[in-house]
Design goal:
Blueprint (H helix, E strand, L loop, with lengths): L28 H29 L2 H23 L2 H14 L14
């Protein structure tokens, strides 16, 4: 047992003593969350300001044009939504029946 009496028990020590010892840093969770919330608030404010700035650059004609475009788009959506797929197919078939035979697919085979 004499050979094991000199074994050091506990953590290993680095050369140079405690001056070079590594100390663990405490995590600062609360400060990070607060900074993150502040940054998000600043980003949202900047986005709102950019949006206002963009809206201010438009002329009256541009604003009116965009309103009319939006109105027409809504009318198109409502028109498409009012007719079912089955009704659209029936209307298309009626349209094809009114066309002349000029639009029919020609025969490919010469033997018949």
């Amino acid at each position: 047992m004499d050979t094991y009496e000199q074994v050091q028990k506990g953590p290993l020590k680095l050369k140079g003593g405690p001056e070079l010892g590594v100390t663990k840093r405490k995590k600062k969770k609360d400060r990070g969350k607060a900074k993150l919330l502040q940054m998000m608030g600043k980003i949202q404010k900047n986005q709102e300001e950019e949006l206002r700035h963009h809206l201010d650059k438009r002329t009256l004609a541009q604003v009116a044009f965009e309103k009319v475009q939006e109105k027409r788009q809504m009318e198109r959506v409502l028109k498409k939504a009012s007719i079912t797929h089955k009704q659209r197919v029936e209307d298309f078939n009626r349209h094809l029946d009114t066309l002349t035979e000029h639009y029919d697919i020609p025969k490919v085979s010469w033997t018949k």
